[in-house]
Amino acid sequence: MGIPYCIVKSKARLGTVVHQKTATALAITGVKPEDKQALSALVSAVNANFTEKSDEIRRTWGGGIMGTKANAKVAKRDAAAAKLAGRTKAV
After folding, report:
1. Measured CA angle at 25 (ends 4, 8), to 5 deg
2. Is the pLDDT reported for residue 62 higher than 70?
3. Number of H helices and number of E strands within the chain?
4. How far is CA 58 from CA 6, 23, 61, 62, in A?
5. Rounded to whole angstroms, how far apart are CA atoms 4 and 46?
6. Spatial distance between the Cα atoms of 41 and 33, rounded to a whole number of angstroms
């Protein structure tokens, strides 16, 4: 898409940009010439730290650690599958 975006932790941080207490979303449509350098630095930081790493972050989410109930359910399912496999081999 080519449009830089990022997710900010708090609504208050976005609110400081628009001089309000809080803001839920922010779209920058025009930039003063004296602020263009600061915006380009912000865009490059967002692209380097958020946009380009989003696939990497998505792949490592979760860790694959299950709880005790989920482990018990999987063990029960595996035991039933082994019992069924043993039954079909005997016949």
Report:
1. 65
2. no
3. 4, 0
4. 14, 26, 5, 9
5. 7
6. 14
